[in-house]
Design goal:
The chain is of the alpha/beta class. It has three domains: 4-50, no CATH class; 79-155 and 165-328, 3-Layer(aba) Sandwich (Pyrimidine Nucleoside Phosphorylase, Chain A, domain 2); 337-422, Aldehyde Oxidoreductase, domain 3, CATH 3.90.1170.30. Helices cover 47% and strands 14% of the residues. The chain is globular, with a radius of gyration of 22 Å. The two termini are 37 Å apart.
Amino acid sequence: MMLPQEIIATKRDGGTLDDDAIRTFVRGLTDDGWSEGQVAALAMAVLLRGMTTGERAFLTMAMRDSGRVLDWALPGPVVDKHSTGGVGDTVSLLLAPALAACGAFVPMISGRGLGHTGGTLDKLEAIPGYRATPGLDELQRVVARVGCAIVGQTDEIAPADRRLYAVRDISATVESVDLITASILSKKLAAGLEALVLDVKTGSGAFMRSADEARTLARALVDVAEEAGCRCSALLTDMDEPLATAAGNALEVALALRVLRGDDPGEERLVEVSCALGGELLALAGSGESAAEGEARLRQALESGAAAERFGRMVAELGGPADFVERFEEHLPQAPVVREVAPAQPGRVQAIDTRALGWAVVEMGGGRRRAEDRVHPGVGLSGLAPIGARVGPERPLALLHLKDPADEEGAAARVRAAYRIGEEPGGASSLVRERIGAGA
């Protein structure tokens, strides 16, 4: 067995790590056989020298196998989606129950907010009583009964990833495409998926701002997932403006419920991306239908109330109120202060710094600057004006939902600074910019 120093030196010098070397590294992550400095040194070598597709795939599978891998015996395909993160991205809350209503089974292992982006778990924890991190046995029970469960990673899922991620965070190696790929897919593949669709964001509110960066990550993820035996494709989607008109945990849950109940027809961007991802996933899962046909079925599940019914059952099974769908406004926390943000001058929205809006929510208390920060679930932004909208005395840029009136001035200034207003109508980007499939 190679020593850690030998493995680090091999990658430092541009060599290819064989399966035994990668297996030794992952074992060292899980049993603390490698020191923090050694883990950081190899992570930096990987960042600088890169990995082959074969190395990425074996690292991903070794990290997957460092914990428990779920096995299913269900009368339908086991599927999931992963998003690289954005602002107002409430797709999971629509897509998981809609897929369940279409006969798929969705064990969705999600994360918390990262940087300027919102986290699905933080949103769901705004629901009173909701158990966001149940054990894997309960996850399997709920998925079998309801068709979907949105939960967090437990200690049993890919424990090697947890330690590697912590070291990457403090060693300036988070940006490595190879390590991002292994981190995302080790957790997803541990859920025992048959098919996975990836929502890779690009634009002002995305981690991968340029299309080239997004395409590189999408290609790496698709190739490794396919190598690991999971059917996979990726959609590159727009994040040059928020995906929905709300950003903030309880506000996004409320928005999702209005869409699920048919109360809010104004969230077409969110619905379009959700259905495009879901249609792609149903086609990948071997349903015998095209992505367009799957998309139409998902729209029907949303419009008929079938998806809302599944969402309500999921919430109740995981400890939330049994009447949540019917009375969500009574159950969700609300900020005590709501204020309008008027634009500096009237005109049309020409462009939005979406990342800045995400950071505005974090600064208001709706996200974390440090891991130990407490999230205030009721704060955030609603009524966000989209690109092309006319704003002025009749239409504010947004509504601030604040925990303290003293926060108003700073939050309003951040929102105004994120909007570029002019006289010409802004040009909204295409929502789904590109599809990346296996071998393409």
